[in-house]
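$ fold --in a.seq
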Amino acid sequence: MAQEDADEKNATLSEAQATLTADQASVGQLTAMENFKHIVAPFTGTITFRNIEVGNLISAGSTTAGTTELYRIAQTDPLRLYVDVPEANTRSIQPGVEADLHVPAYPDRIFHGEVVRSAGALDTATRTLKAEIRVPNPDGTLLPGSFAEVTLELVDGAPAILIPANTLVVNASGTQVALIQNIDGIDKIHFLPVKVGRDFGTEVEILQDVNDGDRLVTNPASDLAKA
Protein backbone atom coordinates (compact mmCIF):
# COMPACT_ATOMS: atom_id res chain seq x y z
CA MET A 1 0.00 0.00 0.00
CA ALA A 2 1.24 3.40 -0.88
CA GLN A 3 2.17 5.68 2.03
CA GLU A 4 -0.30 8.29 0.78
CA ASP A 5 -3.16 5.77 1.05
CA ALA A 6 -2.03 4.72 4.51
CA ASP A 7 -1.95 8.33 5.73
CA GLU A 8 -5.41 8.94 4.31
CA LYS A 9 -6.85 5.87 6.08
CA ASN A 10 -5.18 6.85 9.39
CA ALA A 11 -6.63 10.36 9.13
CA THR A 12 -10.07 8.90 8.48
CA LEU A 13 -9.66 6.64 11.54
CA SER A 14 -8.64 9.57 13.77
CA GLU A 15 -11.61 11.60 12.58
CA ALA A 16 -13.98 8.69 13.25
CA GLN A 17 -12.52 8.21 16.76
CA ALA A 18 -12.95 11.93 17.52
CA THR A 19 -16.54 11.76 16.30
CA LEU A 20 -17.16 8.69 18.50
CA THR A 21 -15.73 10.46 21.54
CA ALA A 22 -17.90 13.51 20.93
CA ASP A 23 -21.00 11.33 20.47
CA GLN A 24 -20.23 9.45 23.70
CA ALA A 25 -19.95 12.77 25.56
CA SER A 26 -23.32 13.84 24.11
CA VAL A 27 -24.88 10.56 25.25
CA GLY A 28 -23.45 11.09 28.75
CA GLN A 29 -24.87 14.65 28.90
CA LEU A 30 -28.31 13.51 27.71
CA THR A 31 -28.26 10.62 30.22
CA ALA A 32 -27.43 13.04 33.03
CA MET A 33 -30.27 15.35 31.96
CA GLU A 34 -32.62 12.38 31.85
CA ASN A 35 -31.68 11.53 35.42
CA PHE A 36 -32.77 15.03 36.52
CA LYS A 37 -36.35 13.99 35.86
CA HIS A 38 -36.24 12.60 39.40
CA ILE A 39 -35.14 15.16 42.00
CA VAL A 40 -34.03 13.62 45.29
CA ALA A 41 -33.39 15.72 48.40
CA PRO A 42 -30.28 14.96 50.47
CA PHE A 43 -32.40 14.72 53.63
CA THR A 44 -35.94 13.86 54.74
CA GLY A 45 -38.06 16.98 55.06
CA THR A 46 -41.18 18.88 54.06
CA ILE A 47 -41.70 20.87 50.86
CA THR A 48 -42.59 24.38 52.06
CA PHE A 49 -42.61 26.15 48.67
CA ARG A 50 -43.32 25.00 45.11
CA ASN A 51 -42.82 27.14 42.04
CA ILE A 52 -43.92 24.65 39.37
CA GLU A 53 -46.88 22.44 38.60
CA VAL A 54 -47.26 19.14 36.76
CA GLY A 55 -46.84 19.75 33.02
CA ASN A 56 -44.68 22.88 33.30
CA LEU A 57 -41.65 23.07 30.98
CA ILE A 58 -38.39 23.27 32.91
CA SER A 59 -35.44 24.66 31.00
CA ALA A 60 -31.82 24.40 32.04
CA GLY A 61 -30.54 27.61 33.57
CA SER A 62 -27.67 29.64 32.17
CA THR A 63 -25.48 32.49 33.29
CA THR A 64 -27.52 34.90 31.18
CA ALA A 65 -31.06 33.70 31.86
CA GLY A 66 -30.49 32.76 35.50
CA THR A 67 -32.16 29.85 37.25
CA THR A 68 -35.64 29.27 38.63
CA GLU A 69 -36.25 27.86 42.10
CA LEU A 70 -38.32 24.69 41.71
CA TYR A 71 -38.91 23.66 45.31
CA ARG A 72 -37.98 24.74 48.80
CA ILE A 73 -37.62 21.92 51.31
CA ALA A 74 -37.09 22.20 55.06
CA GLN A 75 -35.61 19.61 57.38
CA THR A 76 -38.04 19.45 60.30
CA ASP A 77 -36.44 16.87 62.56
CA PRO A 78 -34.32 18.01 64.17
CA LEU A 79 -34.83 21.75 63.86
CA ARG A 80 -31.96 24.23 64.16
CA LEU A 81 -32.44 27.36 66.25
CA TYR A 82 -30.02 30.30 66.35
CA VAL A 83 -29.67 32.62 69.34
CA ASP A 84 -27.43 35.60 70.07
CA VAL A 85 -25.73 35.18 73.45
CA PRO A 86 -24.51 38.31 75.31
CA GLU A 87 -20.75 38.67 75.58
CA ALA A 88 -20.84 38.28 79.38
CA ASN A 89 -22.21 34.72 79.02
CA THR A 90 -20.06 33.47 76.16
CA ARG A 91 -17.64 31.50 78.35
CA SER A 92 -20.55 29.29 79.45
CA ILE A 93 -21.66 28.39 75.90
CA GLN A 94 -20.40 24.89 75.17
CA PRO A 95 -21.79 21.93 73.19
CA GLY A 96 -24.28 20.08 75.35
CA VAL A 97 -25.67 23.10 77.23
CA GLU A 98 -29.40 22.52 77.66
CA ALA A 99 -32.02 24.94 76.37
CA ASP A 100 -35.75 25.33 77.06
CA LEU A 101 -37.92 26.77 74.28
CA HIS A 102 -41.24 28.59 74.52
CA VAL A 103 -43.17 29.27 71.30
CA PRO A 104 -46.30 31.43 70.97
CA ALA A 105 -48.32 28.62 69.38
CA TYR A 106 -47.92 26.40 72.48
CA PRO A 107 -47.81 28.75 75.51
CA ASP A 108 -48.21 25.93 78.05
CA ARG A 109 -45.56 23.63 76.58
CA ILE A 110 -41.79 23.61 76.94
CA PHE A 111 -39.59 22.17 74.20
CA HIS A 112 -36.08 21.00 74.97
CA GLY A 113 -32.90 21.24 72.93
CA GLU A 114 -29.17 21.62 73.38
CA VAL A 115 -26.35 23.76 72.05
CA VAL A 116 -24.35 21.96 69.35
CA ARG A 117 -21.93 24.70 68.22
CA SER A 118 -21.22 28.41 68.23
CA ALA A 119 -19.76 30.90 65.77
CA GLY A 120 -16.53 31.13 67.76
CA ALA A 121 -16.42 34.92 67.34
CA LEU A 122 -18.45 37.90 68.50
CA ASP A 123 -20.58 40.03 66.20
CA THR A 124 -18.78 43.38 66.25
CA ALA A 125 -22.06 45.29 65.89
CA THR A 126 -23.98 43.64 68.75
CA ARG A 127 -21.15 42.11 70.83
CA THR A 128 -23.02 38.81 70.90
CA LEU A 129 -22.10 35.22 70.07
CA LYS A 130 -24.20 33.27 67.57
CA ALA A 131 -25.03 29.80 68.93
CA GLU A 132 -26.87 26.92 67.24
CA ILE A 133 -29.38 24.87 69.23
CA ARG A 134 -30.68 21.55 67.92
CA VAL A 135 -34.27 20.72 68.86
CA PRO A 136 -35.83 17.24 68.34
CA ASN A 137 -39.13 17.51 66.46
CA PRO A 138 -40.21 13.95 65.59
CA ASP A 139 -43.93 14.74 65.41
CA GLY A 140 -43.49 17.94 63.41
CA THR A 141 -45.15 20.10 66.08
CA LEU A 142 -42.66 22.94 65.65
CA LEU A 143 -42.81 24.73 62.30
CA PRO A 144 -39.72 25.99 60.45
CA GLY A 145 -39.42 29.76 60.58
CA SER A 146 -41.02 30.11 64.02
CA PHE A 147 -39.75 32.49 66.69
CA ALA A 148 -39.01 31.14 70.14
CA GLU A 149 -38.04 32.44 73.57
CA VAL A 150 -35.01 30.49 74.77
CA THR A 151 -33.75 29.89 78.30
CA LEU A 152 -30.22 28.47 78.48
CA GLU A 153 -29.17 26.37 81.46
CA LEU A 154 -25.77 28.01 81.92
CA VAL A 155 -23.27 26.76 84.46
CA ASP A 156 -20.67 29.42 85.25
CA GLY A 157 -17.34 28.17 86.58
CA ALA A 158 -16.97 31.50 88.40
CA PRO A 159 -20.47 32.45 89.65
CA ALA A 160 -21.25 36.15 89.78
CA ILE A 161 -21.40 38.02 93.06
CA LEU A 162 -24.64 40.00 93.33
CA ILE A 163 -25.09 42.79 95.85
CA PRO A 164 -28.02 45.13 96.56
CA ALA A 165 -27.88 48.19 94.35
CA ASN A 166 -28.35 50.47 97.38
CA THR A 167 -24.97 49.43 98.80
CA LEU A 168 -23.10 51.26 96.04
CA VAL A 169 -21.48 54.62 96.71
CA VAL A 170 -20.66 56.73 93.65
CA ASN A 171 -18.54 59.83 94.23
CA ALA A 172 -15.39 61.55 93.03
CA SER A 173 -13.38 58.49 94.07
CA GLY A 174 -15.39 56.26 91.76
CA THR A 175 -17.76 53.41 92.59
CA GLN A 176 -17.33 51.94 96.06
CA VAL A 177 -19.04 49.83 98.71
CA ALA A 178 -18.92 50.27 102.47
CA LEU A 179 -17.42 46.99 103.67
CA ILE A 180 -17.75 46.04 107.35
CA GLN A 181 -14.58 44.44 108.66
CA ASN A 182 -13.97 43.07 112.14
CA ILE A 183 -10.60 44.35 113.36
CA ASP A 184 -9.50 43.31 116.86
CA GLY A 185 -13.07 42.46 117.76
CA ILE A 186 -14.42 45.84 116.59
CA ASP A 187 -16.51 46.33 113.45
CA LYS A 188 -15.08 49.07 111.26
CA ILE A 189 -16.06 50.52 107.90
CA HIS A 190 -13.76 50.28 104.90
CA PHE A 191 -14.70 51.88 101.60
CA LEU A 192 -13.70 49.45 98.86
CA PRO A 193 -13.48 50.39 95.15
CA VAL A 194 -15.41 47.90 93.02
CA LYS A 195 -15.98 47.14 89.36
CA VAL A 196 -19.65 46.78 88.43
CA GLY A 197 -20.87 44.28 85.83
CA ARG A 198 -24.48 43.70 84.84
CA ASP A 199 -27.29 45.77 86.34
CA PHE A 200 -30.39 43.78 87.37
CA GLY A 201 -32.27 46.73 88.86
CA THR A 202 -32.39 46.01 92.59
CA GLU A 203 -29.14 44.03 92.35
CA VAL A 204 -25.86 44.55 90.51
CA GLU A 205 -23.03 42.20 89.60
CA ILE A 206 -19.61 42.84 91.16
CA LEU A 207 -16.68 41.57 89.10
CA GLN A 208 -13.91 41.72 91.70
CA ASP A 209 -12.83 42.27 95.32
CA VAL A 210 -16.18 41.48 97.00
CA ASN A 211 -16.50 37.89 98.22
CA ASP A 212 -19.40 35.71 99.23
CA GLY A 213 -20.21 36.34 102.89
CA ASP A 214 -18.86 39.92 103.05
CA ARG A 215 -20.98 42.37 105.05
CA LEU A 216 -21.93 45.63 103.33
CA VAL A 217 -23.68 48.77 104.53
CA THR A 218 -26.94 49.59 102.79
CA ASN A 219 -27.65 53.24 101.95
CA PRO A 220 -24.34 54.42 103.49
CA ALA A 221 -24.36 58.07 104.56
CA SER A 222 -21.82 60.45 103.05
CA ASP A 223 -20.38 61.25 106.46
CA LEU A 224 -20.02 57.61 107.52
CA ALA A 225 -16.82 57.15 109.55
CA LYS A 226 -14.15 55.13 107.79
CA ALA A 227 -11.78 52.61 109.29
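$ fold --in b.seq
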Amino acid sequence: MTVALTEEKSQNIIQTVQEYGKRLFSFIRNRVGTDEDAEDILQDVWYQFSNVADASSIEQVSSWLYTVARNKITDKYRKQKQAYIEDFVYEDEEGEINYKELLLSDPTTPEDIELRKIFWEELFLALDELPEEQRQVFVWNELEDMTFREISEKTGENIKTLISRKRYAVTHLRKRLENLYTDLITR
Protein backbone atom coordinates (compact mmCIF):
# COMPACT_ATOMS: atom_id res chain seq x y z
CA MET A 1 0.00 0.00 0.00
CA THR A 2 2.83 2.46 0.79
CA VAL A 3 4.40 1.87 -2.64
CA ALA A 4 1.10 2.84 -4.28
CA LEU A 5 0.86 5.98 -2.13
CA THR A 6 4.47 6.93 -2.90
CA GLU A 7 3.85 6.47 -6.64
CA GLU A 8 0.66 8.54 -6.43
CA LYS A 9 2.49 11.28 -4.53
CA SER A 10 5.30 11.31 -7.11
CA GLN A 11 2.78 11.62 -9.95
CA ASN A 12 1.00 14.44 -8.10
CA ILE A 13 4.30 16.33 -7.68
CA ILE A 14 5.28 15.81 -11.33
CA GLN A 15 1.86 16.96 -12.53
CA THR A 16 1.97 20.05 -10.29
CA VAL A 17 5.48 20.98 -11.45
CA GLN A 18 4.40 20.64 -15.09
CA GLU A 19 1.21 22.63 -14.55
CA TYR A 20 2.61 25.50 -12.46
CA GLY A 21 6.37 25.48 -13.07
CA LYS A 22 6.69 28.14 -15.78
CA ARG A 23 4.12 30.53 -14.32
CA LEU A 24 5.54 30.20 -10.83
CA PHE A 25 9.07 30.82 -12.13
CA SER A 26 7.86 33.98 -13.94
CA PHE A 27 6.09 35.17 -10.79
CA ILE A 28 9.26 34.72 -8.73
CA ARG A 29 11.59 36.12 -11.42
CA ASN A 30 9.61 39.36 -11.58
CA ARG A 31 10.29 39.88 -7.87
CA VAL A 32 13.97 38.98 -7.54
CA GLY A 33 17.19 40.22 -9.11
CA THR A 34 18.45 37.26 -11.15
CA ASP A 35 17.37 34.02 -12.83
CA GLU A 36 19.61 32.15 -10.39
CA ASP A 37 17.79 33.63 -7.39
CA ALA A 38 14.44 32.75 -8.97
CA GLU A 39 15.58 29.19 -9.64
CA ASP A 40 16.80 28.80 -6.04
CA ILE A 41 13.51 30.04 -4.64
CA LEU A 42 11.50 27.86 -7.03
CA GLN A 43 13.55 24.85 -5.95
CA ASP A 44 12.77 25.69 -2.31
CA VAL A 45 9.05 25.88 -3.14
CA TRP A 46 9.12 22.47 -4.85
CA TYR A 47 11.08 21.00 -1.96
CA GLN A 48 8.53 22.28 0.54
CA PHE A 49 5.69 20.98 -1.66
CA SER A 50 7.31 17.55 -1.90
CA ASN A 51 7.55 17.37 1.90
CA VAL A 52 3.83 17.92 2.45
CA ALA A 53 2.54 14.63 3.88
CA ASP A 54 -0.67 14.65 1.84
CA ALA A 55 -0.47 17.17 -1.00
CA SER A 56 -3.93 16.13 -2.20
CA SER A 57 -5.35 17.66 0.99
CA ILE A 58 -4.31 21.14 -0.20
CA GLU A 59 -7.55 22.70 -1.45
CA GLN A 60 -6.01 25.49 -3.56
CA VAL A 61 -2.67 24.22 -4.85
CA SER A 62 -1.92 27.36 -6.86
CA SER A 63 -2.68 29.59 -3.88
CA TRP A 64 -0.50 27.43 -1.65
CA LEU A 65 2.41 27.51 -4.14
CA TYR A 66 2.26 31.28 -4.62
CA THR A 67 2.02 31.88 -0.87
CA VAL A 68 5.10 29.73 -0.27
CA ALA A 69 6.90 31.55 -3.11
CA ARG A 70 6.04 34.97 -1.61
CA ASN A 71 7.30 33.82 1.78
CA LYS A 72 10.56 32.54 0.27
CA ILE A 73 11.05 35.85 -1.58
CA THR A 74 10.47 37.75 1.67
CA ASP A 75 12.97 35.51 3.47
CA LYS A 76 15.54 36.20 0.76
CA TYR A 77 15.11 39.97 1.12
CA ARG A 78 15.41 39.76 4.90
CA LYS A 79 18.69 37.90 4.55
CA GLN A 80 19.91 40.48 2.03
CA LYS A 81 18.78 43.32 4.33
CA GLN A 82 20.91 41.91 7.13
CA ALA A 83 23.99 41.81 4.90
CA TYR A 84 23.16 45.25 3.57
CA ILE A 85 22.94 46.80 7.02
CA GLU A 86 26.21 45.25 8.11
CA ASP A 87 27.90 46.61 4.99
CA PHE A 88 26.66 50.18 5.23
CA VAL A 89 26.11 50.94 8.89
CA TYR A 90 29.53 51.15 10.42
CA GLU A 91 31.40 52.60 13.32
CA ASP A 92 33.34 55.79 12.71
CA GLU A 93 36.76 56.72 14.17
CA GLU A 94 35.20 57.38 17.56
CA GLY A 95 33.48 53.98 17.67
CA GLU A 96 30.05 55.45 17.01
CA ILE A 97 27.56 54.01 14.55
CA ASN A 98 27.19 56.25 11.50
CA TYR A 99 23.59 56.38 10.27
CA LYS A 100 23.83 59.66 8.38
CA GLU A 101 25.55 58.00 5.42
CA LEU A 102 22.75 55.46 5.18
CA LEU A 103 19.92 57.94 5.61
CA LEU A 104 21.19 60.48 3.12
CA SER A 105 22.47 58.20 0.34
CA ASP A 106 20.43 57.69 -2.83
CA PRO A 107 18.47 54.41 -2.78
CA THR A 108 19.23 52.19 -5.76
CA THR A 109 17.45 48.92 -4.95
CA PRO A 110 14.15 47.90 -3.36
CA GLU A 111 16.17 46.87 -0.30
CA ASP A 112 17.70 50.35 -0.09
CA ILE A 113 14.28 51.95 -0.30
CA GLU A 114 12.79 49.69 2.38
CA LEU A 115 15.76 50.11 4.71
CA ARG A 116 15.67 53.88 4.32
CA LYS A 117 11.91 53.88 5.03
CA ILE A 118 12.42 51.89 8.24
CA PHE A 119 15.22 54.16 9.44
CA TRP A 120 13.32 57.39 8.71
CA GLU A 121 10.23 56.05 10.50
CA GLU A 122 12.30 55.10 13.54
CA LEU A 123 14.21 58.39 13.48
CA PHE A 124 11.01 60.42 13.54
CA LEU A 125 9.50 58.24 16.26
CA ALA A 126 12.64 58.78 18.34
CA LEU A 127 12.61 62.52 17.58
CA ASP A 128 9.01 62.71 18.81
CA GLU A 129 10.19 61.36 22.18
CA LEU A 130 12.49 64.36 22.69
CA PRO A 131 11.58 67.67 24.34
CA GLU A 132 10.64 70.25 21.70
CA GLU A 133 13.82 72.35 22.15
CA GLN A 134 16.16 69.36 21.70
CA ARG A 135 14.21 68.04 18.72
CA GLN A 136 14.13 71.40 16.99
CA VAL A 137 17.88 72.04 17.41
CA PHE A 138 18.67 68.56 16.06
CA VAL A 139 16.36 68.98 13.04
CA TRP A 140 17.66 72.43 12.19
CA ASN A 141 21.32 71.50 12.58
CA GLU A 142 21.39 67.95 11.15
CA LEU A 143 18.51 67.79 8.70
CA GLU A 144 18.25 71.41 7.56
CA ASP A 145 22.01 72.12 7.75
CA MET A 146 21.64 75.29 9.80
CA THR A 147 24.68 76.36 11.79
CA PHE A 148 24.47 76.93 15.54
CA ARG A 149 25.02 80.63 14.86
CA GLU A 150 22.01 80.70 12.50
CA ILE A 151 19.89 78.82 15.05
CA SER A 152 21.04 81.20 17.78
CA GLU A 153 20.04 84.21 15.68
CA LYS A 154 16.67 82.63 14.92
CA THR A 155 15.84 81.65 18.52
CA GLY A 156 17.82 84.13 20.58
CA GLU A 157 19.34 81.21 22.54
CA ASN A 158 23.01 81.00 23.56
CA ILE A 159 25.11 78.77 21.24
CA LYS A 160 26.35 76.70 24.20
CA THR A 161 22.74 76.02 25.20
CA LEU A 162 21.94 74.90 21.66
CA ILE A 163 24.98 72.61 21.55
CA SER A 164 23.95 71.09 24.87
CA ARG A 165 20.40 70.46 23.61
CA LYS A 166 21.72 68.82 20.49
CA ARG A 167 24.06 66.63 22.56
CA TYR A 168 21.11 65.33 24.58
CA ALA A 169 19.18 64.71 21.37
CA VAL A 170 22.09 62.87 19.75
CA THR A 171 22.60 60.71 22.85
CA HIS A 172 18.93 59.71 22.83
CA LEU A 173 18.81 59.11 19.07
CA ARG A 174 22.04 57.12 19.08
CA LYS A 175 20.62 54.82 21.73
CA ARG A 176 17.29 54.39 19.92
CA LEU A 177 18.83 53.81 16.49
CA GLU A 178 21.42 51.44 17.91
CA ASN A 179 18.54 49.30 19.18
CA LEU A 180 17.03 49.35 15.68
CA TYR A 181 20.37 48.38 14.20
CA THR A 182 20.68 45.49 16.63
CA ASP A 183 17.13 44.35 15.89
CA LEU A 184 17.70 44.37 12.14
CA ILE A 185 21.01 42.54 12.10
CA THR A 186 19.83 39.80 14.47
CA ARG A 187 16.68 38.89 12.50
